[in-house]
From TrEMBL:
Pfam hit, one: Response_reg
Keyword terms, alphabetized: Phosphoprotein
Positions of modified residues (4-aspartylphosphate): 58
Domain spans labelled Response regulatory: 8-118
GO biological-process terms attached to the record: phosphorelay signal transduction system
Protein name: CheY-like chemotaxis protein
Organism listed in the record: Brevundimonas basaltis
Protein origin, superkingdom: Bacteria
PANTHER family, per database record: PROTEIN-GLUTAMATE METHYLESTERASE_PROTEIN-GLUTAMINE GLUTAMINASE 1, STRESS RESPONSE REGULATOR PROTEIN 1
Amino acid sequence: MTEFSGLSVLLVEDEGGVALLLETMLEDLGFEVAASVARVGRAFEAIEARAFDLAVLDVNLGGETSFDLARSLVGGRTPVVFSTGYGAAGLPVDLQSCPVLSKPFTQDSLRETIRATGIGAR
């Protein structure tokens, strides 16, 4: 059992290889990848269908950003981690408190970024 066992995660990533890598890493950390989608619209459908303990969001998804989705999740008290190559400087001011997983990443950096949300302390 790991510190994240039993927790569900929403993964929103439009690059197939990156999504598969993140799914594997998240599962290795103990998460249940409850939904993995590539588009913002599908992510909104997923959060209407169920609650998640964490969301990992790519910033740019096929020409859209995940910022409105992140605002909805944060407003509902779901911790958000952004996955991006742009760093925190690319986030709007109101979302800059969300941890950023910088691409490229390792399993250790993923774990530490998730810990920054406080989710492991729940």
